[in-house]
Design a protein that fits this description.
The structure is a single chain. The chain contains 5 helices and 35 strands. The protein is mainly beta. Strands 2-1-30-29-28-27 form a 6-stranded mixed sheet, covered by helices on one side. Strands 3, 31, 33, 34 and 35 form a 5-stranded antiparallel sheet that branches. It has a 5-stranded mixed sheet with strand order 7-6-5-4-32, with no helix packed on it. Helix 1 packs antiparallel against helix 2. The mean pLDDT is about 90. This is BNR/Asp-box repeat-containing protein. InterPro entries: BNR_rpt, WD40/YVTN_repeat-like_dom_sf. Pfam families: BNR (PF02012).
Length: about 425
Protein backbone atom coordinates (compact mmCIF):
# COMPACT_ATOMS: atom_id res chain seq x y z
CA UNK A 1 0.00 0.00 0.00
CA UNK A 2 1.58 3.26 -1.16
CA UNK A 3 0.60 5.89 1.41
CA UNK A 4 2.60 8.64 -0.30
CA UNK A 5 0.74 8.30 -3.59
CA UNK A 6 -2.63 8.20 -1.79
CA UNK A 7 -1.64 11.37 0.09
CA UNK A 8 -0.89 13.00 -3.24
CA UNK A 9 -4.20 11.83 -4.76
CA UNK A 10 -6.19 13.52 -1.98
CA UNK A 11 -4.99 16.89 -3.25
CA UNK A 12 -6.73 16.19 -6.58
CA UNK A 13 -10.15 15.07 -5.26
CA UNK A 14 -12.85 17.72 -5.55
CA UNK A 15 -16.18 15.81 -5.47
CA UNK A 16 -18.50 14.52 -2.74
CA UNK A 17 -16.44 11.34 -2.32
CA UNK A 18 -13.70 13.32 -0.59
CA UNK A 19 -14.81 12.51 2.97
CA UNK A 20 -15.11 8.81 2.20
CA UNK A 21 -11.69 8.77 0.58
CA UNK A 22 -10.19 10.80 3.41
CA UNK A 23 -11.57 8.38 6.04
CA UNK A 24 -10.10 5.39 4.20
CA UNK A 25 -6.80 7.22 3.84
CA UNK A 26 -6.58 8.02 7.58
CA UNK A 27 -7.35 4.39 8.44
CA UNK A 28 -4.52 3.29 6.14
CA UNK A 29 -2.17 5.80 7.74
CA UNK A 30 -3.06 4.50 11.20
CA UNK A 31 -2.56 0.84 10.24
CA UNK A 32 0.94 1.38 8.88
CA UNK A 33 2.02 3.76 11.68
CA UNK A 34 2.60 6.82 9.53
CA UNK A 35 0.66 9.44 11.50
CA UNK A 36 3.86 11.24 12.43
CA UNK A 37 4.96 11.32 8.79
CA UNK A 38 1.56 12.65 7.68
CA UNK A 39 1.76 15.42 10.27
CA UNK A 40 5.22 16.32 8.96
CA UNK A 41 3.90 16.34 5.37
CA UNK A 42 1.17 18.78 6.43
CA UNK A 43 3.58 20.94 8.44
CA UNK A 44 5.98 21.27 5.50
CA UNK A 45 3.13 21.86 3.03
CA UNK A 46 1.71 24.70 5.13
CA UNK A 47 5.14 26.30 5.48
CA UNK A 48 5.64 26.15 1.71
CA UNK A 49 2.12 27.17 0.62
CA UNK A 50 1.96 30.17 2.98
CA UNK A 51 5.55 31.21 2.21
CA UNK A 52 6.67 30.75 5.80
CA UNK A 53 10.06 29.51 4.64
CA UNK A 54 12.56 32.26 4.03
CA UNK A 55 13.97 32.38 0.47
CA UNK A 56 17.35 31.31 1.92
CA UNK A 57 15.75 28.02 3.06
CA UNK A 58 15.35 26.89 -0.55
CA UNK A 59 18.01 25.31 -2.73
CA UNK A 60 19.69 27.99 -4.85
CA UNK A 61 20.04 27.09 -8.52
CA UNK A 62 22.44 28.90 -10.79
CA UNK A 63 20.76 30.84 -13.58
CA UNK A 64 21.63 28.79 -16.61
CA UNK A 65 19.59 26.66 -18.99
CA UNK A 66 19.40 22.92 -18.51
CA UNK A 67 18.49 20.10 -20.89
CA UNK A 68 14.92 18.82 -21.11
CA UNK A 69 14.05 15.17 -21.67
CA UNK A 70 10.73 14.89 -23.52
CA UNK A 71 8.17 12.06 -23.64
CA UNK A 72 9.98 10.41 -26.54
CA UNK A 73 13.23 10.26 -24.61
CA UNK A 74 14.74 13.04 -26.71
CA UNK A 75 16.82 15.85 -25.25
CA UNK A 76 16.31 19.51 -26.03
CA UNK A 77 18.03 22.68 -24.92
CA UNK A 78 14.75 24.41 -23.88
CA UNK A 79 14.71 26.28 -27.18
CA UNK A 80 14.75 23.67 -29.92
CA UNK A 81 15.09 19.91 -30.29
CA UNK A 82 18.69 18.88 -30.89
CA UNK A 83 20.57 15.63 -31.31
CA UNK A 84 20.92 13.78 -27.98
CA UNK A 85 24.66 13.43 -28.30
CA UNK A 86 25.19 17.08 -29.24
CA UNK A 87 22.99 18.18 -26.33
CA UNK A 88 24.90 16.13 -23.77
CA UNK A 89 28.29 17.05 -25.22
CA UNK A 90 27.35 20.69 -24.61
CA UNK A 91 27.34 20.00 -20.86
CA UNK A 92 30.42 17.76 -20.94
CA UNK A 93 29.04 14.25 -21.55
CA UNK A 94 30.01 11.74 -24.21
CA UNK A 95 28.24 8.57 -25.29
CA UNK A 96 29.36 5.18 -23.92
CA UNK A 97 29.26 1.97 -25.91
CA UNK A 98 28.55 -0.21 -22.85
CA UNK A 99 25.05 -0.16 -21.33
CA UNK A 100 26.14 -0.33 -17.68
CA UNK A 101 23.32 -0.68 -15.13
CA UNK A 102 25.69 -0.66 -12.16
CA UNK A 103 29.39 0.10 -12.47
CA UNK A 104 31.91 0.26 -9.61
CA UNK A 105 35.50 1.45 -9.97
CA UNK A 106 37.70 -0.79 -7.77
CA UNK A 107 40.78 0.29 -5.84
CA UNK A 108 42.97 -0.70 -8.82
CA UNK A 109 40.76 1.48 -11.10
CA UNK A 110 39.29 -1.46 -13.01
CA UNK A 111 35.52 -1.48 -13.59
CA UNK A 112 33.02 -4.10 -12.40
CA UNK A 113 29.30 -4.16 -13.01
CA UNK A 114 26.22 -5.52 -14.74
CA UNK A 115 24.46 -4.35 -17.90
CA UNK A 116 20.88 -3.51 -18.86
CA UNK A 117 21.15 -5.99 -21.74
CA UNK A 118 22.26 -8.80 -19.38
CA UNK A 119 21.33 -7.94 -15.76
CA UNK A 120 22.11 -11.46 -14.46
CA UNK A 121 25.81 -11.31 -15.43
CA UNK A 122 28.86 -9.70 -13.85
CA UNK A 123 31.26 -7.93 -16.23
CA UNK A 124 34.82 -6.66 -15.85
CA UNK A 125 36.64 -3.95 -17.80
CA UNK A 126 40.21 -2.66 -17.48
CA UNK A 127 38.96 0.91 -18.04
CA UNK A 128 36.00 2.76 -19.52
CA UNK A 129 37.40 2.44 -23.06
CA UNK A 130 37.91 -1.34 -22.91
CA UNK A 131 35.27 -3.84 -23.96
CA UNK A 132 33.74 -5.45 -20.84
CA UNK A 133 34.32 -9.18 -20.39
CA UNK A 134 31.64 -11.47 -18.92
CA UNK A 135 33.00 -12.92 -15.68
CA UNK A 136 30.14 -14.76 -14.00
CA UNK A 137 26.42 -15.43 -14.56
CA UNK A 138 23.90 -15.61 -11.71
CA UNK A 139 20.48 -17.28 -11.64
CA UNK A 140 18.62 -13.97 -11.26
CA UNK A 141 19.08 -10.28 -11.89
CA UNK A 142 21.81 -8.52 -9.89
CA UNK A 143 20.07 -6.11 -7.52
CA UNK A 144 23.15 -4.50 -5.97
CA UNK A 145 26.96 -4.69 -5.76
CA UNK A 146 29.82 -3.69 -3.50
CA UNK A 147 33.63 -3.94 -3.71
CA UNK A 148 35.89 -3.73 -0.66
CA UNK A 149 39.28 -2.03 -0.58
CA UNK A 150 41.06 -5.36 -1.02
CA UNK A 151 38.94 -6.01 -4.15
CA UNK A 152 36.61 -8.59 -2.62
CA UNK A 153 33.43 -8.64 -4.71
CA UNK A 154 29.95 -8.77 -3.17
CA UNK A 155 26.91 -9.31 -5.39
CA UNK A 156 23.27 -9.41 -4.26
CA UNK A 157 20.84 -11.59 -6.19
CA UNK A 158 17.45 -13.03 -5.14
CA UNK A 159 17.98 -12.17 -1.48
CA UNK A 160 21.43 -13.78 -1.32
CA UNK A 161 24.81 -12.09 -0.88
CA UNK A 162 27.58 -13.76 -2.90
CA UNK A 163 31.29 -13.19 -2.29
CA UNK A 164 34.30 -13.64 -4.57
CA UNK A 165 37.91 -13.29 -3.46
CA UNK A 166 39.43 -14.32 -6.81
CA UNK A 167 38.23 -11.52 -9.11
CA UNK A 168 34.95 -13.19 -9.99
CA UNK A 169 36.30 -16.61 -10.99
CA UNK A 170 34.09 -18.21 -8.34
CA UNK A 171 31.41 -17.03 -5.92
CA UNK A 172 30.05 -18.43 -2.67
CA UNK A 173 26.79 -17.51 -0.95
CA UNK A 174 27.76 -15.99 2.40
CA UNK A 175 24.55 -14.35 3.62
CA UNK A 176 20.83 -15.12 3.29
CA UNK A 177 18.77 -11.96 3.76
CA UNK A 178 15.34 -12.33 5.36
CA UNK A 179 13.41 -12.45 2.05
CA UNK A 180 14.06 -13.32 -1.59
CA UNK A 181 13.27 -9.73 -2.65
CA UNK A 182 15.66 -8.14 -0.13
CA UNK A 183 18.85 -6.36 -1.13
CA UNK A 184 20.94 -3.35 -0.10
CA UNK A 185 20.65 0.01 -1.81
CA UNK A 186 23.36 0.46 -4.43
CA UNK A 187 25.97 3.07 -3.46
CA UNK A 188 24.26 3.71 -0.10
CA UNK A 189 23.39 0.51 1.77
CA UNK A 190 26.76 -1.20 2.36
CA UNK A 191 30.03 0.14 3.73
CA UNK A 192 33.53 -0.76 4.94
CA UNK A 193 35.13 0.68 8.08
CA UNK A 194 38.82 1.62 8.40
CA UNK A 195 39.43 -1.65 10.29
CA UNK A 196 37.82 -3.58 7.37
CA UNK A 197 34.62 -4.43 9.24
CA UNK A 198 31.72 -4.60 6.76
CA UNK A 199 28.16 -3.42 7.41
CA UNK A 200 25.04 -3.96 5.29
CA UNK A 201 21.49 -2.67 5.69
CA UNK A 202 18.60 -4.79 4.40
CA UNK A 203 16.12 -3.11 2.07
CA UNK A 204 12.90 -4.36 0.48
CA UNK A 205 9.13 -3.83 0.41
CA UNK A 206 6.68 -6.66 1.15
CA UNK A 207 3.05 -5.85 1.98
CA UNK A 208 1.33 -8.57 4.02
CA UNK A 209 -2.43 -7.94 4.30
CA UNK A 210 -2.46 -4.88 6.60
CA UNK A 211 1.21 -4.22 7.34
CA UNK A 212 4.73 -4.24 5.96
CA UNK A 213 6.96 -7.24 6.55
CA UNK A 214 9.75 -5.96 8.78
CA UNK A 215 13.09 -6.20 6.96
CA UNK A 216 14.97 -3.64 9.08
CA UNK A 217 17.97 -5.86 9.86
CA UNK A 218 21.56 -4.63 10.07
CA UNK A 219 24.33 -7.13 9.27
CA UNK A 220 28.04 -6.86 10.09
CA UNK A 221 31.10 -8.99 9.37
CA UNK A 222 34.51 -8.92 11.05
CA UNK A 223 36.16 -11.52 8.82
CA UNK A 224 35.94 -9.95 5.37
CA UNK A 225 32.40 -11.07 4.66
CA UNK A 226 32.81 -14.82 5.21
CA UNK A 227 30.41 -14.85 8.19
CA UNK A 228 27.81 -12.29 9.23
CA UNK A 229 26.06 -11.24 12.42
CA UNK A 230 22.48 -9.93 12.31
CA UNK A 231 21.06 -7.32 14.67
CA UNK A 232 17.44 -6.21 15.05
CA UNK A 233 18.11 -3.13 17.20
CA UNK A 234 16.13 -0.98 14.74
CA UNK A 235 13.10 -3.23 15.03
CA UNK A 236 13.37 -3.11 18.80
CA UNK A 237 13.36 0.69 18.57
CA UNK A 238 10.10 0.68 16.56
CA UNK A 239 11.25 0.71 12.91
CA UNK A 240 8.77 -1.27 10.79
CA UNK A 241 10.17 -1.68 7.28
CA UNK A 242 13.79 -1.43 6.08
CA UNK A 243 17.15 0.40 6.05
CA UNK A 244 18.14 3.06 3.55
CA UNK A 245 21.68 4.30 4.21
CA UNK A 246 24.63 2.57 5.88
CA UNK A 247 27.75 4.59 5.08
CA UNK A 248 31.04 5.29 6.84
CA UNK A 249 31.92 8.99 6.80
CA UNK A 250 35.68 9.72 6.83
CA UNK A 251 34.88 13.36 7.65
CA UNK A 252 32.73 12.57 10.70
CA UNK A 253 34.74 9.42 11.51
CA UNK A 254 31.38 7.79 12.14
CA UNK A 255 28.86 5.43 10.55
CA UNK A 256 25.71 7.10 9.23
CA UNK A 257 22.55 4.98 9.24
CA UNK A 258 19.03 5.97 8.16
CA UNK A 259 15.87 3.88 8.37
CA UNK A 260 12.44 3.91 6.67
CA UNK A 261 9.35 3.72 6.67
CA UNK A 262 7.32 4.81 9.71
CA UNK A 263 10.12 6.38 11.79
CA UNK A 264 12.55 7.66 9.13
CA UNK A 265 15.33 8.30 11.65
CA UNK A 266 19.00 9.26 11.45
CA UNK A 267 21.59 7.41 13.54
CA UNK A 268 25.32 7.91 14.13
CA UNK A 269 27.89 5.46 15.53
CA UNK A 270 31.12 7.31 16.34
CA UNK A 271 32.78 4.46 18.24
CA UNK A 272 32.46 2.04 15.29
CA UNK A 273 31.50 -0.71 17.76
CA UNK A 274 28.45 -2.20 19.54
CA UNK A 275 26.35 -2.50 16.38
CA UNK A 276 23.41 -4.05 18.25
CA UNK A 277 22.89 -1.30 20.80
CA UNK A 278 21.00 1.98 20.86
CA UNK A 279 22.69 4.33 23.31
CA UNK A 280 22.62 7.93 24.50
CA UNK A 281 25.35 10.57 24.72
CA UNK A 282 28.90 9.21 24.27
CA UNK A 283 28.38 5.54 25.04
CA UNK A 284 29.52 3.04 22.38
CA UNK A 285 26.78 2.17 19.91
CA UNK A 286 24.08 3.90 17.86
CA UNK A 287 23.03 7.41 18.84
CA UNK A 288 19.68 8.68 17.56
CA UNK A 289 20.14 12.16 16.11
CA UNK A 290 16.56 13.37 15.62
CA UNK A 291 14.02 13.43 18.42
CA UNK A 292 11.00 14.36 16.27
CA UNK A 293 10.16 13.26 12.74
CA UNK A 294 9.70 16.75 11.26
CA UNK A 295 13.19 17.78 12.42
CA UNK A 296 15.26 15.21 10.60
CA UNK A 297 15.04 11.85 8.87
CA UNK A 298 13.82 10.01 5.81
CA UNK A 299 17.13 9.96 3.98
CA UNK A 300 17.66 7.79 0.93
CA UNK A 301 21.11 8.94 -0.22
CA UNK A 302 24.37 10.38 1.08
CA UNK A 303 27.51 11.99 -0.31
CA UNK A 304 30.62 13.58 1.19
CA UNK A 305 32.50 16.68 0.09
CA UNK A 306 35.55 16.39 2.35
CA UNK A 307 34.37 19.20 4.64
CA UNK A 308 30.77 18.07 5.19
CA UNK A 309 28.21 15.42 4.29
CA UNK A 310 24.98 15.82 2.34
CA UNK A 311 21.84 13.74 2.84
CA UNK A 312 18.95 13.51 0.38
CA UNK A 313 15.39 13.06 1.70
CA UNK A 314 12.81 10.40 0.83
CA UNK A 315 9.33 11.94 0.94
CA UNK A 316 7.55 10.74 -2.19
CA UNK A 317 4.63 13.11 -2.82
CA UNK A 318 5.63 15.42 0.06
CA UNK A 319 8.34 18.04 0.53
CA UNK A 320 11.94 17.00 -0.03
CA UNK A 321 15.17 18.41 1.33
CA UNK A 322 18.93 18.34 1.05
CA UNK A 323 20.58 18.32 4.47
CA UNK A 324 24.16 19.35 5.18
CA UNK A 325 26.23 18.85 8.33
CA UNK A 326 29.87 19.43 9.17
CA UNK A 327 29.91 17.92 12.66
CA UNK A 328 26.95 15.53 12.96
CA UNK A 329 25.31 17.84 15.50
CA UNK A 330 24.20 20.93 13.57
CA UNK A 331 22.18 20.37 10.38
CA UNK A 332 21.22 22.85 7.67
CA UNK A 333 18.05 21.91 5.79
CA UNK A 334 17.41 23.21 2.26
CA UNK A 335 14.01 22.77 0.60
CA UNK A 336 13.74 21.54 -2.98
CA UNK A 337 11.77 24.16 -4.91
CA UNK A 338 8.81 23.46 -7.18
CA UNK A 339 8.41 21.70 -9.59
CA UNK A 340 11.02 19.33 -8.07
CA UNK A 341 9.83 19.52 -4.45
CA UNK A 342 7.87 16.24 -4.43
CA UNK A 343 10.66 14.14 -5.96
CA UNK A 344 12.93 12.30 -3.46
CA UNK A 345 16.71 12.60 -3.77
CA UNK A 346 17.30 8.94 -4.60
CA UNK A 347 21.08 8.93 -5.14
CA UNK A 348 24.18 11.12 -4.86
CA UNK A 349 27.76 10.61 -6.01
CA UNK A 350 30.95 12.50 -5.16
CA UNK A 351 33.15 13.27 -8.16
CA UNK A 352 36.76 14.37 -7.71
CA UNK A 353 38.00 17.11 -10.05
CA UNK A 354 41.24 19.18 -10.23
CA UNK A 355 39.37 22.16 -8.76
CA UNK A 356 37.67 20.25 -5.92
CA UNK A 357 34.87 17.79 -5.26
CA UNK A 358 31.53 17.90 -7.06
CA UNK A 359 28.34 16.30 -5.72
CA UNK A 360 25.98 14.92 -8.36
CA UNK A 361 22.41 14.19 -7.28
CA UNK A 362 19.33 12.71 -8.93
CA UNK A 363 15.73 13.34 -7.84
CA UNK A 364 12.99 10.99 -9.03
CA UNK A 365 9.22 10.56 -8.74
CA UNK A 366 6.77 8.66 -10.94
CA UNK A 367 3.54 9.87 -9.29
CA UNK A 368 2.69 12.68 -11.69
CA UNK A 369 4.01 14.56 -14.72
CA UNK A 370 3.71 17.74 -12.65
CA UNK A 371 6.41 16.48 -10.28
CA UNK A 372 9.48 17.16 -12.37
CA UNK A 373 12.70 15.22 -11.76
CA UNK A 374 16.24 16.53 -11.99
CA UNK A 375 19.88 15.60 -12.49
CA UNK A 376 21.97 18.33 -10.85
CA UNK A 377 25.39 18.99 -9.32
CA UNK A 378 27.16 21.36 -6.95
CA UNK A 379 30.77 22.55 -6.93
CA UNK A 380 30.56 24.45 -3.64
CA UNK A 381 29.38 21.80 -1.16
CA UNK A 382 25.70 22.50 -1.73
CA UNK A 383 25.62 26.30 -1.56
CA UNK A 384 24.48 26.50 -5.19
CA UNK A 385 23.36 23.85 -7.68
CA UNK A 386 23.45 23.51 -11.45
CA UNK A 387 20.49 21.90 -13.27
CA UNK A 388 21.66 19.42 -15.92
CA UNK A 389 18.64 17.36 -17.09
CA UNK A 390 14.97 18.08 -16.29
CA UNK A 391 12.62 15.14 -16.97
CA UNK A 392 9.21 13.56 -16.36
CA UNK A 393 9.54 10.48 -14.16
CA UNK A 394 6.34 8.91 -15.51
CA UNK A 395 7.99 8.65 -18.95
CA UNK A 396 11.75 8.60 -18.35
CA UNK A 397 14.36 7.81 -15.75
CA UNK A 398 17.88 9.19 -15.39
CA UNK A 399 20.18 7.22 -13.09
CA UNK A 400 23.61 7.72 -11.56
CA UNK A 401 25.32 4.48 -12.54
CA UNK A 402 28.82 4.71 -11.05
CA UNK A 403 30.29 4.19 -7.61
CA UNK A 404 33.94 3.92 -6.56
CA UNK A 405 36.17 2.64 -3.79
CA UNK A 406 38.61 5.57 -3.98
CA UNK A 407 37.89 9.24 -4.76
CA UNK A 408 37.30 9.25 -8.51
CA UNK A 409 36.53 11.49 -11.47
CA UNK A 410 34.41 8.76 -13.03
CA UNK A 411 30.72 9.54 -13.59
CA UNK A 412 28.29 7.55 -15.76
CA UNK A 413 24.58 8.29 -16.20
CA UNK A 414 21.89 6.21 -17.93
CA UNK A 415 18.74 7.51 -19.62
CA UNK A 416 15.73 5.19 -19.85
CA UNK A 417 12.60 5.87 -21.90
CA UNK A 418 9.58 3.84 -20.76
CA UNK A 419 7.37 4.57 -23.74
CA UNK A 420 3.58 4.39 -23.81
CA UNK A 421 1.56 2.00 -21.64
CA UNK A 422 2.02 -1.56 -22.81
CA UNK A 423 5.03 -0.79 -25.00
CA UNK A 424 8.43 -2.41 -24.54
CA UNK A 425 10.95 -0.70 -22.28
CA UNK A 426 13.62 1.12 -24.21
CA UNK A 427 16.95 2.00 -22.61
CA UNK A 428 19.15 4.70 -24.05
CA UNK A 429 22.89 4.38 -24.25
CA UNK A 430 24.94 5.54 -21.29
CA UNK A 431 26.99 8.69 -21.07
CA UNK A 432 30.17 9.53 -19.18
CA UNK A 433 31.30 12.93 -18.00
CA UNK A 434 34.49 14.00 -19.73
Amino acid sequence: MDVSSRYYNILKIRDRNLLKYLWGFLLSIYRVGKLRELSSFCYWEVNHRFKLYRPSRYILFQKQACLLLNHQGELSDQASLVNDQIALEAVGFERLMTDWKYCIEAADYTLWGCRFSNPTALYHSENQLSTPVLVHSFTGAISSMFISRNSTLFVCCDGLIYRSMNRGISFEAVLHLSSSVSYFLYNNGMTELPNQVLLLGEYGSIWNKNSWQNLAFLYYSTDGGQTWNRTDFLQRSGVNKHIHVVRYSPHLKAIVLTDGDNRKQLWLNSTLTHFSEQVSKKQPGWRLVNRFHHQMGGYLSMAETGTSILLGSDYLGGTNFLIQTQDGRRFEKKVMSDPYRRSPVVNMVTRETPTGNEIWAITYSCLSSHNRCLLMYTKDSGKTWVKVIDFDGTQNEVRLVTSSVNPSSLLFISITYYGKAGSQLHTHQLYSLK
